[in-house]
């Protein structure tokens, strides 16, 4: 099959654009994190640092509580992931398999939840959580994250559920299995890619979430990475080097996570969205 | 019991476990801040929670040391600091007060105080301030902004004032011997210094507090410092204000192209990387100058804010940063007072201010001469500028709190950055200074209605 | 899929009526039990605050917790007559359109490239997601920094390549601010759509492309007549959810320009936030939120009605 020269050129050009657009800024952040304070704001930028400067990272790990924030972020993200997967899977099973009455309304409610401007949720959510003592707790943040992440996850799961033949469920029923047993033995194994997908989505959602975390976390011990990032930018001045280093640190764990299990996510998002659409 | 019933019960049990686990799982949490419903045993220290918005890690660390010192020398009190974000604190404190989880001490600036007072949770601290005034001697500008008809609503802790910062080396290159003292000189210098990629000045014009502050400094020098009159009417639209905006508009021509989105960071970076020769800001320019510019300390020049050639006065915006007491519990109130008194003691005050040397200035008489403050390497290195800042503080004022006024509505104006928006009307919408100021007047009137 | 639940409801005759009722309704009960936590969760965290907001919209509350009065529909009147509100709505529509166009283009281009079989393409499927992973706080600051007229690398490169003569002024100009924030936002969010589209493209049968090539169709023709139509269903869903999400974006805009300069980027979420926490008029902001939700609901209903892909 002959692809014309112009098509090949266009494709090659498109790749250059993609790499530059996506990786360019990321490279810039990481490269800058190794620049010393005067080089980083230079009017004529340097592509690679003139001298490899570790001061920003040193500062980050010795004089700030970034390691604590990292641990907190991981804790919140993992818990959010687990809780979202559980809640969304159970709900998805009820909605798409058991076809519980009211499923359609729940589906509409999910859609409606996307329309809500977040601003005015801040104070009521805080007050509500305070009334049960969940303000300034990891658990409170997880609860809120799950509430915001699960609608999309339930929506994504629909495609995965629909892809599992009904006959399998029916066969299990004939063998005398109840709905839960069916879920456990029949559906879950086939849902694995879907679970990986929504798990990763929930993880990322929690990892990057700033507004709610900043509102609900009060004490320094429990702050997450985005809050720490924002704190680096003090009022009245910005230390760019620290900021770049902090951003790089925020990116790194997820980049590693993706490198390890990203293909399930990519593969999963596809199936879910395709079938569920 | 059937398999199904067992499963259902199992489900419910699991749900119950999860819910209770959620309620209990809170690693390392001391619980909602600031409240203490059970009476602590007589030997347990009184907990005092302090919220402040000085987020940079160096400030947090410096203050933690002071808190640790206080805690060990005052075993009956335990102070903890919790750092918040300026972007979040407005909604956060409202929510905290509503749910009775507010801190015991909340650091503040004058217009923020008017906002928090409307939640009803701020305690008057008049006796404490008077006591401290007698002991240490507050600057007038420091207490004025918290004095509402004789009652004080926050304890002043540290001050900030704006200066003209300039690059001595760039001035030398352009053959300018001394920094400008008048508006005309500043315009002339800015023009001379704008060559090639270099700009004469870097000014903020974004919709933010930085812009409000810089232009207000100029407004003071032009006698336009009163936004309100004695009766509480907005008097923003007046000839002095118009001439200030006219001047700022002209100056902006010598500022980098995207100044309309500048806040604090950008002008400082421009001054430090040598692409701008002048900037107006507070003392945060001292500490990072050498590292960011790669130049010696002697290249950083400072001067008083330039005044109009005719009918001007010395002036600069002055921020008195203070601490509000938000607890009604007597034991905590007393403990909080102890802590605030401790901070202003000259030997402690120095390290407290030097959490950010040059930016945090003393606002007490004995603080200004305290060796613990003056002895810091950065202060010593830039002694001339520090002295000048203290001098400038004498003529420092803040919008809404000028000449003994206490305008409770100033928060609605500063919160929306109406002054900054007025500048943008000129710069972006190309309105004349007269029209822009008129527009600003209307906006302010609507905001305080 | 239609029909009754696929679990057994047949009951042996010798079981009593109560038992029969239990067994028959057991699956439904389980279903409700499974659905309940999520519904309760969403209800508490999302809808209770919305209810709270609706109540607030009928008061003149300035700050939460401060004393206030009921003002009936006064806030709604003020909002619907407010030039600022409709101006912001218009900006939001522009913001939405810009984002949809840019993100769709970027996502499609990326998805097509990701579908190739060589090593770079396979690796790209991982790193293409990285912009999405960076907290918005960092995205805002970094784009501001890169597009700065003074020390921004983008401006420097463009000037060096003689693409522009003057220093780059993106966020400081009325013309550049909204496009600039759209670019930053699109960069942050397009990877999600790209990966979804990529997966969807993988399901298109190869034979269709083969047949088209045999018939002499160009690459563009193949895209236009095979790829694009087959993806309508996915695009419809992405458009709906993505559109709603994009409309309500606040942080990227606020962190970069605060809605300036001179209101150039003051979209509806920005004006709601400012009204609530900068002008201290929560009651009015609540009314704005309610009106915004209604507008979005209407728009979504229209979208579903008219843009739903017909089943072929």
Task: Describe the fold and architecture.
- The complex is a heterotrimer of chains A (277), B (449) and C (312).
- Chain A has 12 helices and no strands.
- Chain A has 277 residues and is mainly α.
- Chain A folds into 2 domains: 1-63, no CATH class; 64-276, Orthogonal Bundle (MetI-like fold), CATH 1.10.3720.10.
- By secondary structure, chain B is of the alpha/beta class.
- Chain B contains 21 helices and 11 strands.
- In chain B, the strands form 3 sheets. In chain B, strands 1, 2, 3, 6, 10 and 11 form a 6-stranded mixed sheet that branches.
- In chain B, a hairpin with a 2-residue loop joins strand 4 (147-148) and strand 5.
- In chain B, helix 9 (209-221) packs across helix 20 (418-427) and helix 20 runs antiparallel to helix 21.
- The longest helix of chain B is centred in the N-terminal third of the chain and has 22 residues, at 3-24.
- Chain C has one domain: Orthogonal Bundle (MetI-like fold).
- Chain C contains 14 helices and no strands.
- In chain C, helix 2 (74-81) crosses helix 14 (282-307), helix 3 packs across helix 8 (174-202) and helix 3 (83-114) crosses helix 11.
- The chains are: A mainly alpha (277), B alpha/beta (449), C mainly alpha (312).
- Chains in contact: A-B, A-C, B-C.
Features:
heterotrimer, A: 277 residues, mainly alpha, MetI-like fold, 2 domains, 12 helices, 0% strand, B: 449 residues, alpha/beta, D-Maltodextrin-Binding Protein, domain 2, six-stranded mixed sheet, three-stranded antiparallel sheet, 11 strands, 12% strand, globular
Short note summarizing the structure:
With about 450 residues, chain B is an alpha/beta fold.
Rg of chain A over CA atoms, rounded to whole Å, is 23 Å
* Overall helicity of chain A: over 70%
Order of helices and strands of chain A: HHHHHHHHHHHH
Radius of gyration of chain C, in Å, reads: 26 Å
Identify the most extensive interface between protein chains.
Answer: A-C, 109 and 101 residues
Please indicate the count of domains of chain A. 2
Question: What is the CA-CA span between the terminal residues of chain A?
Answer: 33 Å
Q: How many β-strands of chain C, per DSSP?
A: 0
SSE-based structural type of chain A: mainly alpha
Proportion of beta-strand residues of chain A: under 5%
Shape summary of chain A = globular
> Unreliable stretches of chain A, pLDDT < 50, 5 or more residues?
none
Largest sheet report of chain A = none
Q: Report the span from N to C terminus of chain C.
A: 17 Å
């Amino acid at each position: 099959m002959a692809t014309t020269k112009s098509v090949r050129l266009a494709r090659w050009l498109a790749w250059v654009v993609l790499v530059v657009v996506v990786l360019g800024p990321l490279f810039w952040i990481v490269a800058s994190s190794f620049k010393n304070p005067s080089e980083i704001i230079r009017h004529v930028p340097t592509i690679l640092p003139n001298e490899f400067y570790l001061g920003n990272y040193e500062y980050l790990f010795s004089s700030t509580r970034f390691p604590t924030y990292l641990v907190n972020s991981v804790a919140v993200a993992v818990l959010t992931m687990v809780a979202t997967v559980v809640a969304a899977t159970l709900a998805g099973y009820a909605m798409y398999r058991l076809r519980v009455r009211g499923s359609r309304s729940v589906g509409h409610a999910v859609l409606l939840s996307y329309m809500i401007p977040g601003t005015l949720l801040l104070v009521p959510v805080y007050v509500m959580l305070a009334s049960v003592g969940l303000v300034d707790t990891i658990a409170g943040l997880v609860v809120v994250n799950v509430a915001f992440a699960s609608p999309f996850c339930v929506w994504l799961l629909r495609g995965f559920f629909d892809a599992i033949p009904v006959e399998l469920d029916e066969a299990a029923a004939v063998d005398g299995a109840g709905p839960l047993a069916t879920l456990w033995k029949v559906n879950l194994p086939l849902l694995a890619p879907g679970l990986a997908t929504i798990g990763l989505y929930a993880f990322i959602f929690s990892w990057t979430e700033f507004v709610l975390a900043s509102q609900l976390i009060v004490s320094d011990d429990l702050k997450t990475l985005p809050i720490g990032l924002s704190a680096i930018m003090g009022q009245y001045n910005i230390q760019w080097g620290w900021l770049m280093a902090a951003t790089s640190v925020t990116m790194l764990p997820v980049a590693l996570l993706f490198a390890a299990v990203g293909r399930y996510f990519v593969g999963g998002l596809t199936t879910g969205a395709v079938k569920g659409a | 019991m059937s398999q199904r019933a067992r499963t259902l019960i199992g489900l419910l049990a699991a749900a119950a476990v999860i819910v209770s686990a959620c309620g209990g799982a809170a690693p390392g949490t001391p619980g909602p801040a600031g409240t203490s419903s059970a009476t602590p045993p007589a030997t347990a220290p009184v907990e005092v929670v302090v919220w402040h918005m000085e987020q940079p890690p160096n400030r947090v660390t410096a203050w933690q040391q002071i808190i640790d010192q206080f805690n060990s020398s005052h075993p009956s009190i335990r102070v903890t600091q919790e750092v918040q974000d300026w972007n979040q604190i407005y909604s956060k404190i409202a929510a905290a007060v509503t749910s009775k989880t507010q801190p015991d001490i909340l650091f503040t600036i004058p217009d923020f105080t008017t906002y928090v007072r409307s939640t009803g949770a701020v305690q008057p601290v008049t006796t404490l301030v008077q006591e401290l005034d007698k002991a240490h001697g507050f600057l007038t500008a420091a207490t004025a902004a918290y004095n509402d008809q004789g009652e004080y609503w926050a304890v002043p802790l540290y001050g900030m004032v704006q200066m003209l910062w300039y690059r001595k080396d760039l001035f030398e290159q352009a053959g300018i011997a001394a920094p400008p003292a008048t508006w005309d000189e500043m315009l002339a210098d800015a023009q001379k210094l704008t060559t090639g990629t270099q700009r004469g000045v870097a000014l903020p014009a974004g919709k933010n507090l930085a812009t409000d502050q810089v232009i207000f400094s100029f407004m003071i020098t032009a006698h336009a410092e009163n936004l309100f009159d004695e009766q509480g009417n907005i008097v923003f639209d007046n000839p002095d204000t118009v001439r200030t905006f006219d001047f700022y508009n002209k100056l902006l021509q010598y500022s980098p192209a995207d100044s309309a989105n500048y806040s604090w960071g950008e002008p400082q970076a421009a001054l430090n990387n040598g692409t701008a020769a002048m900037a107006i800001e507070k003392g945060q320019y001292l500490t990072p100058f050498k590292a960011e510019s790669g130049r010696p300390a002697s290249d950083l020049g400072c001067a008083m804010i330039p005044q109009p050639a005719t009918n001007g006065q010395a002036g600069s915006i002055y921020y008195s940063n203070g601490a509000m007491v938000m607890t009604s519990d007597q034991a905590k109130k007393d403990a909080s007072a102890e802590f605030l008194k401790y901070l202003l003691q000259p030997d402690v005050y120095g390290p407290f201010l030097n959490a950010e040397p040059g930016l945090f200035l003393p606002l007490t008489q004995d603080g200004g001469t305290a060796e613990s403050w003056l002895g810091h390497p950065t202060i010593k290195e830039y002694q001339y500028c520090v002295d000048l800042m203290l001098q400038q503080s004498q003529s420092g004022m803040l919008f809404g709190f000028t000449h003994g006024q206490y305008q409770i509505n100033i928060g609605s104006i500063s919160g929306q950055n109406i002054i900054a928006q007025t500048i943008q009307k000129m710069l972006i919408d190309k309105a004349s200074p007269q029209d822009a100021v008129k527009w600003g007047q209307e906006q302010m009137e609507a905001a305080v209605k | 899929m239609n029909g009754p639940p696929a679990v057994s409801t047949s009951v042996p005759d010798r079981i009593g009526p109560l038992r029969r009722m239990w067994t028959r309704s057991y699956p439904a009960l389980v279903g409700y039990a499974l659905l309940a936590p999520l519904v309760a969760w969403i209800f508490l965290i999302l809808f209770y605050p919305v209810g709270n907001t609706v109540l607030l919209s009928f008061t003149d509350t300035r700050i939460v917790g401060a004393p206030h009065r009921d003002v009936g529909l006064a806030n709604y009147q003020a909002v619907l007559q407010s030039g600022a509100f409709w101006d912001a709505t218009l900006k939001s529509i522009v913001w939405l359109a810009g984002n949809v166009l840019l993100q769709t283009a970027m996502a499609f281009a990326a998805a097509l490239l990701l579908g190739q079989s060589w090593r770079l393409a396979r690796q790209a499927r991982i790193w293409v997601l990285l912009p999405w992973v960076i907290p918005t706080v960092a995205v805002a600051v970094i784009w501001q920094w890169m597009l700065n007229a003074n020390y921004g690398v983008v401006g420097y490169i463009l000037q060096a390549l003689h693409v522009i003569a003057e220093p780059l002024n993106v966020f400081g100009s009325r013309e550049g601010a909204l496009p600039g924030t759209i670019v930053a936002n699109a960069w942050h969010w397009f990877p999600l759509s790209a990966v979804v589209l990529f997966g969807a493209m993988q399901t298109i049968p190869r034979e269709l492309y083969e047949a088209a090539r045999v018939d002499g169709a160009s690459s563009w023709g193949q895209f236009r007549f095979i790829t694009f139509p087959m993806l309508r269903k996915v695009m419809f869903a992405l458009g709906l959810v993505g559109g709603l999400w994009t409309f309500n974006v606040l942080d990227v805009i606020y962190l970069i320009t605060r809605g300036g300069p001179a209101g150039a980027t003051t979209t509806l979420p920005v004006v709601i936030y400012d009204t609530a926490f900068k002008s201290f008029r929560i009651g009015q902001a609540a009314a704005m939120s309610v009106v915004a939700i209604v507008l979005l609901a209407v728009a979504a209903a229209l979208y579903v009605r008219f843009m739903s892909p017909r089943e072929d």
